[in-house]
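Everyone, carefully examine this protein record:
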Amino acid sequence: MSHLPSHYGGTFTPTTHASIPSNIDPSAVTLPSPFIVVVTGAGKGLGWHIALAYVQAGCSGICISSRTSGDLDKLEEEIGKVAARRKDAGGKVEVEVLKMICDVQRDEDVGKLEEGVRRKWGRVDVVVANAGIISKYVKREDGGNLPIGVVEDGDWARVLDINLMGVWRISKALTPLLIATKDGPQTLICSTSLAAHSYTSAMTPIAYNVSKMACNRLIEHIAIDHKDDGIVAYALHPGAVLTPQTQHHAGEVWDTLLSDDPGLAGAMCVWLSREKRAWLSGRYVSCNWDVDELEGMKEDIVEGGKLVFRMVV
């Protein structure tokens, strides 16, 4: 990340990580009980690993959602294996799983997800709005397949509807339940991206970049507007990870960039939500940052108004 402009924040902490450091290892955490988590886009990729991180940390219940039931069945099986390993290590293993088919583009699906969580547990401690996509591939003469500019990128409506409006729908539906869970961390995390800082589509399409930048601002609003309700909210960059979605990106830059551990984002989610970190609420956070160094920068971050988005004048 050191090759990127400083405003990308890739090296905001002097030490950065591409794999899970011991100080945020979710298997070393024991979450309180009850502790209920909702993860959208959990069927594959980052969402899959985020869900497993909370199981490693001992959550008592988890709602996993995806558009594909088969993916959720596979994840539920893996959750059972992770819980069994935790039992072998002497940890808490009782975890209830709620599988929900949910297309975050559909108000009806999101409403059913909220209803399912409310009826099963009557609470939610953490919501991770992770479901997201990138623009459809195109054929380019330079060998790349991600669209560049407003002419090539014809996938705006779908990308914005999932990446931004999907986060809004999930937030709108589940924030009341987060507010009602007064004895929990009341945490909302949305998956943003380093691409939010980009002002060119040379690497990632405009629709994707704009959707993630808008999510950062949405998180700021939620954190400030619902501060008195106890809500804390974070926009988390989940790293540069090889996933079923990114593995088909073509172009020389992608051959070496996607090297972060897919479990790193989940580990950071657990760290962010195992206790309230009000000083960090409403801000952009990268899973690559060192959390000890980040906490050491707390005063500078708060007093300097850092990790939020403002026009330079």
In short: The mean pLDDT is 92. The chain has one domain: 30-303. The beta strands are 36-39, 61-66, 96-101, 126-129, 187-191, 232-237, 283-286. The CA atoms of residues 7 and 311 lie 12 Å apart.
